[in-house]
Fold:
Amino acid sequence: MMLEFPILSILIIMPAIGAALVFLARNHNVAMKYIALAATLATFVLSILLLICFDKTTPEFQFVENYPWIPDYNINYHLGIDGISVFFIILTTLLMPICILTGWEAIKKQVPLYLASFLLMESLLIGVFAALDFVLFYVFFEAVLIPMYLIIGIWGGENRVYAAFKFFLYTLIGSVLLLLALIYIYLHTGTTDIPALIQEVPKLAFDVQKWLWLAFFASFAVKVPMWPFHTWLPDAHVQAPTAGSVILAGVLLKIGGYGFLRFSLPMLPDASNYFTPLVFGLSIIAVLYTSLVALMQEDMKKLIAYSSVAHMAFVTIGIFAFRTAAIEGAIFQMISHGIISSALFLCVGVVYDRMHTKEIAKYGGLVSKMPVYAALFMIFTLAAVGLPGTSGFVGEILVLLGTYGVSKPTTILSAIGMILGAAYMLWLYKRVIFGALVNPALSGISDLNLREKSFLIPLAGLAIFLGIYPAAIMDDIHVSVHNLLQSGHFINVEMHEDAPEIITPEENEPDAD
Amino acid sequence: MPIDIFYILPEIFLVLMAAILLLAAAVLGNNFCRSTTRLSALTLLVAVVLMVPCWSQKISAFHGLFTSNDFIIFVKILIAVTGSVVTLMYLEHAKSDLAAFSEFPVLLMFSIVGMLVMVSANNFLTLYLGMELQSLSLYVLAASNRDSVKSSEAGLKYFVLGALASGVMLYGISLVYGFTGTTDFSTLAKIYSNLADSEQTVALPLGVLIGMVMIIIAVCFKISAVPFHMWTPDVYEGAPTIVTAFFAAVPKLAAIGIFIRIGMDAFGGLVDQWKQIVIFVSAASMILGSIAAVRQTNLKRLLAYSSIGHAGYMLIGLAAATQEGIQAILIYAVIYAIMSVGIFGCLIFMRRNFIPVENISDLAGIARSNPVFAFLISVFMLSMAGIPPLAGFFGKFYIFMAAIEQHLYPLAIIGVVTSVIGSYYYLNIMRVMYFEQSVTPLDKPCGLIMKSVLILSAAFNILFFICPGPLVTVAKTAAAALF
Structure:
């Protein structure tokens, strides 16, 4: 079912209009917050319409809009989504109202700028996932850095300036190489249209493809972030305000994975195949190393940040396994991680707002004072661990299943990473929630208020719902992923016929129980 | 001959008006300053109108001394419009500055006439005449704040080095003349037109080569490209801010315009010979411009280094030596001119208790006391850094595109790496404004003209991405005139 109006453009513009309204109402402290909340909620509701009207039977791009933008260079304002991108947009619109809500009371200074930054970021992020023109994608992709730089730098912690610069420059250096690759591709194909490029770029010489792949990799690997390009992430997460961490972990990291799926794999299939050992190698190191590092962290946010690196490593493994199951698992894992890690950062934010410290040692025994919080935190912890019945499980098991036929050592080593993941998450939970209430400052701590419940409970519900009924997502992405592997000329796909080719969501459900 | 005069009508009109205004200034004194300024700005705009009829005509006047085509008109209009805006900014400067004097806008006009002549030159002698007219006015402008030692130093330094550059250029011209017997661009181009494709049908004397290198050195001095940039930071810092604004925006456009003319017209057959020089100069400018700016504390010095870097980016387009390259330069030049006008406009505003301040630390925390001002500076900074969706990104985008098309991969990679380094110091200014605690707030901006200039240039930078097509098309037409 197609819509009569340009829904994607409206989704992009709506938060930007919200930002303009916030600017106009900048002297009304409460009104502008409600404006921001209303804008994000309206965008969310509209994005649900996207899901309802989404045609899951076709791999074609949907809700397409295509207008000339720079006609002399054949660059177009081309928007459209498929099964791969639709849930990233939903994830963005879902998390944004939460970001506004979590800063409701905690943010005291420069509130209009705070709200406007998040709203503009929402516009840009939707643009990133909806763009079907490489230049348009790049513009959105890099512009996201500006609001994020401000968010970390203005409302961040002690060392925020360092973290903001590191975030910006790290990401920028990766993305400028992508820009050069983009220009090279344009000059050799005469187009920047992504669907056309998927047809044209694989025809380039293999040596060229290798260089292009490395340029793409530089950009997306920093975003994901893959080991050893991950060092900006712990800094950025620890320093960013809660909402900044939420959007960083929830959506920004996913741009890297999305980039691999949208660009590296379909455009450079041979090079992707060629570099698979590299990706697997780096991802295994990431899973094992960052899990061990996470074990030893004394700062809650840093621990979750390192766990993000480990979880995203599953994603990269899944993407480069070139199996329907693994790639679907990777996408699912990204969505699920977007929900779970955001929720974990929100949980940290809840106690941080009360105690103004993120040090694990300062907490303990919270269960007696904050029972609701403890229960919700438990759900998210278990989801992060990958307990069956939660969304964390589905993604990881699909990735492992899909990868098994491709590389057994990779599967086994990443399974070990899962065990480590359980160790650090449960240990964190134990230290923060259980034990004796040692710190006297904690005695007056209050449980979740209505505002906090309003976003944590739906997230918990979502984590469980997707764990029990993953088909809600799987059905929509299946055709697109299948098409990606079919059209991508993956020479090696046939070579591993022994691997489980397609895991349908139905087969998968019993695992979830 | 009478018809030839029609082609230089804008220049004649400017000179006449400048002479009249100079007399008026002498008679009426400095109280007349604001009117002179307004009239000068208006005159420049009228000159632009007079230039428009020459669009899409190929003209050669005065026995080939003077020429005009789409490319030249494009550059000339850009120079005159930017010059007019800078002249208008002098109104703001004159309002609170006791040193304001009526001759200032007149000097600006003379220097702009020089630039227009220079860009239209089809002969090295015309070129030299134009260049000297603009330089002489600029020397005086740099030293125009007579009460400041720094300003006098800047003027003297610029004069001595500028005179040296002029000497080098003259020597180069005489060498070229001595070995070829001509100073005419078209004749020179004809002599060496088939050098590139066949094997040395015409011998290339060493004298011509050396002469060409010397001319290029002089032009590099004018666009402050490394290693001929030494004067830039000192002059930018020492000169009054309004003059610095002019330096950064206008003469640079003229110099890059004439650099292109010399490269593509006069020495169009020697592309392989000068290409290597341009590649080196471009890479060196980008590297020095970005690295040296990192540790600057004075905003004007920082912008001096940033302008060196921008010259480097523009030269990438020349190194490509293709129509796409020239087109990219023109797009970049327009965006650069608007960014410069904007950022220096902000700088003119930077006062605390009516005293101009120009250190980066003076901007501390102004995001809260002057949020609009901080926003404007951020827009210009991010645009200069080349972060999309701001206009500066598109400038760099086309430049890199031209470079990669000509397989200038090292230059493109140096370009993107230095733009990342560059973004560090642009971001650093944002850090100071947004992340730091406020000291004393700056004075609130005032002046309707100035406000509209700033807002318009910021709006251009922000909204350019919505409709980049027209500028690209016009630049394409202009660049095509050279091929």
Summary: The radius of gyration of chain B is 21 Å. The first strand of chain B starts at residue 59 and ends at 61.
